[in-house]
Amino acid sequence: MTERTYLATKVPAIGLAFWATKLITTGLGESWSDFFNQSLGPVADLAIGLLSFGVFLFLQFKQPKYRVWTYWLTLLSLAVFGTFIADATHGIGLSYVMAFIIYGSALVVTLGLWYRHAHNLSVHTITTNRREMFYWLTVTLTFTLGTAVGDLLAETVHLGFLDTGVYLGLVFLAIIAFRRFAGGRFDTFTFWSAYVLTRPIGASFADYFGYDWHHGILGSAGMSAIWLVGFIGLFAYLLIQEKLVANQLGTLVTED
């Protein structure tokens, strides 16, 4: 692959808006995938997830810098596709423990290859197409590993969806708090640890409120609508922020 350098980093700044949008995206992807599967069937679910992920990932790679719409729509489509893959993996008889081992090993190998190429695993330096390739491969594996972790705790350990979401949510908050006060120490490790956890947290709450809460009164359709409202709100906020930053940079260039 020819090395291509971008004008700026291809991923968003890591802050409260990032984590909130990531959590909502995973929940929406879980609910949407379940809704497509139940209403249209597994083939349509696979087609929607795979095609949308392929299209938006292609558009994401075409951008010279981070853009809100390509990044987050790529991540949303991956959440739909990743849910299907996780369900299919269990459907063919692979246990949650084996899924955890396989996906965890694949993630470690990918991070090792990324480090060998770039000599760091920082998400703040995604400025070449090769680093971006490693980034999205890692993100994909965090979805599959996170799903395995959530399913393992909810079903094999019998915590249930709600307790799994709550307990992992507390671990997630502890990691975010540590990142806030650690002054950059263990930045890469804490980022990817928190990133993996966003998947089972979002999926666990989506499943609990969709199927267990009040005997499943909301269902996948109701939860899809609720998650979508939250996603649209945060997506609009991020687009506005992107526009404001672009205007400020344009003003600075004009004044210079």
TrEMBL record:
Keywords: Membrane, Transmembrane, Transmembrane helix. It holds the Pfam family DUF347. The chain crosses the membrane at residues 40-61, 68-86, 92-114, 134-153, 159-178, 190-211, 217-240. InterPro entries: DUF347. This is Membrane-anchored protein. It comes from Leuconostoc holzapfelii. The lineage of its organism: Bacteria, Bacillati, Bacillota, Bacilli, Lactobacillales.
